[in-house]
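Interim report, section 4.2 (structural modelling).
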Amino acid sequence: MRNWLPLHGYQSYQRIQRTGLFRASPPVILAAGFLGLILMGTLLLSLPMASRNGISATNAFFMATSAVTVTGLTSVEPAIAFTHFGQIVLMTLVQLGGLGFVTFAVVSAIMLGKKMSLTHQALALEALNQTSVSKIQKTAFSVFKLSITIELIMATILTLWWWRDYPLITAIYRAIFHAITSFNNAGFSLFPNSLNQFLGDPVTVLVITASIILGGIGFSVLGDISQKKRWSSLLTYTKVIIMGTLALNLTGFVVIWALEFNNPHTLANLPWHSQALAAWMQSVTSRTAGFVTLDITQLHDSSTLIIMLLMFIGGGSLSTASGIKIGTFIILLAAVYSYIRHRKEVVLFKRSVSSDTIQKSLALLLANSALIFLGVLILTTLEELPFISILFEVVSAVSTTGMSRDLTPQLSTASQLVLTLLMFAGRLGPLTLIYSLATQQRSRVRYPETEFQVG
Amino acid sequence: MRNWLPLHGYQSYQRIQRTGLFRASPPVILAAGFLGLILMGTLLLSLPMASRNGISATNAFFMATSAVTVTGLTSVEPAIAFTHFGQIVLMTLVQLGGLGFVTFAVVSAIMLGKKMSLTHQALALEALNQTSVSKIQKTAFSVFKLSITIELIMATILTLWWWRDYPLITAIYRAIFHAITSFNNAGFSLFPNSLNQFLGDPVTVLVITASIILGGIGFSVLGDISQKKRWSSLLTYTKVIIMGTLALNLTGFVVIWALEFNNPHTLANLPWHSQALAAWMQSVTSRTAGFVTLDITQLHDSSTLIIMLLMFIGGGSLSTASGIKIGTFIILLAAVYSYIRHRKEVVLFKRSVSSDTIQKSLALLLANSALIFLGVLILTTLEELPFISILFEVVSAVSTTGMSRDLTPQLSTASQLVLTLLMFAGRLGPLTLIYSLATQQRSRVRYPETEFQVG
Ligand SMILES: [K+]
Ligand SMILES: [K+]
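Predicted structure of the assembly:
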């Protein structure tokens, strides 16, 4: 029996299937929910009151998909094309998509005082990848509480800071918008050229990056921290993810700074503290948030490569970030290290990791790589554009990062539809993968082992 | 106890270590052997009699490394820069590097009627990744016999065919050179623009591709076929590799043909049978042989991407081809498929695959990817060249394919040295990886299992 899904959850799920309450498979329900949100968003964004001069159905669909999948790729500029109504629709789609309609469903159920239905339980269990149904209820509620708290704090600080330059109402409006898009790692901005004007502004950069990191580190980590308070009593998983996040962000910071130090189009002409802030922002945002303060088209190819790796890895599990996830990345590294060190089991912080977890990590790595490969293959046949720009765009879509080398608006409708599919698959992919597993037949046959040469 | 190395071999190895006969670790000896060959080759190619107008030490070193690692990247044209002596040195380096100095050492030992020393046994065992020492002796001898037989047959056909256009001596000389370089998947050619002039020549294309496939499928497969003769009695491994090779080559053939069909710089202006031959040649050669009949710089980015995937996968284990190897690729696919199908074990042709094999495959995948990532990172900082050309060059070097978008001669000395390191690591990498394992400390501590979220 595989242990990737807790017995408890799996049995509930089987019971649901047997009682016929729940015939559609969970990934179908999840995908349908996201699709429903996207279609509703498309409809609302198509309304005359949503845009200043009207936008095409393709653009509305693209922007809605980008919002629900918390990507942030833009075929039209939200600040220019949309009215306040359109912008509020956009940020609502981001909030619903980011925290996940599943979490919302669970939280609503708890708030309404209803005992969660088994359908909801199984749904929440798979979506949040948690280990017990009762735990999920607590988690779901703390997801909601934590998110709103963090977003409120960030919005307050940004309001006070931006009030110096904007009328209070404008400051509040923009602060809420950016608190939501940054915490949900959704990269939309209401300023021209994303956050370029805040390049050297320490308060804005540090608040936005803090919000990105908190949204992208994963709710189980946040939950564990908020319960335990002390480092020594944290779960191994929490410690590993915190250290991994820190390591990735700092590595990105140093490497991007070093590689762009002499680039007159990015860092070279800035004072050192602005260089530091810009490199930090670029490193943090690459882990699938997608805001930019630098001109992405002017970065060296070497930094662009580093950024693509950061996008591919992404944030923590159970977070508003996407990518293969930092936990997956760490497991893959640990597996290779253990193999080289000749260990029978994969060991991480003196704990062994199950072979199922390793296979799941491998599956995620290959699924995301295959998605990127296919995306690039299709886009290179559809467009005559530099390979690196297409690769960057596809990695950005699959990891739902939303940075672009100014490519998105230039693309044909066909290519934009391919990108919507990639964003959708990139955001739901891991979930659907896990989900599909539960619905497959298990084999009871044992096969004899074969010797197989590799490498 | 891990089962990746047979107990038998491991015990011999331990005995050797204990008796102090064999203090250097096997990967060091292997690497040193290759390095020795490369340095000897550099010296010989630097001799005035080797080149028409003299070549730089860097070029001699680059060409020797390219030959010993059977890559075929060229900083100078072998047909133009080298004399006959230089060309013979080159093909000798290819033959020694391709069949492996290990195999040669083992075969020599057998031929000399000496009982193999334990040192040789352990060395051969690790290098050929076989399961018993007595089996290795047989294998080594059949490697030698098979290689020479196949090369002689190919050389004879090519001689007869090319005799129509060249004097007999020239035909024999070129036939031997190309029989050796094609069977060893080393991609050097004595004609201008590689094999471009044979674009529509069915005999040359089919002989060269057959030679490439036979050299690149792996000696255990060839050995099994030559012993069993009948499909039904072949090993599972043999069947899988044959079918996988066929599937990859045919897929590459169809996809490249389809993507280049309308390209006036490659296939569009050719008759259909030449299109077919050119697409077939391009598909087969991409699995790390490196000959070309088409102009690589003129291929669509989409076909270039496909070719990079084929290069990355490469040929069979225990062959003159490199890459992660087709067996590794199949195991990775099988692991993902089994995971999705909810199977506890990875099943391939009704045989289960050990978790060690899967971890090894994962290690190979990540090691090669990391090598490519680092190579591209360094080259993009050193050169101002199109990203796709650099990526192609690096994948070609790491997989020891040797195709280039005409980049190699343009590169700075520093970049060329990076390429030599990549070729060296790409060819030895998997071997050294396996080898290093045996020299590491085993841990006897059992750690408790931890839950770890991925994806
Ligand atoms: K994003
Ligand atoms: K080659």
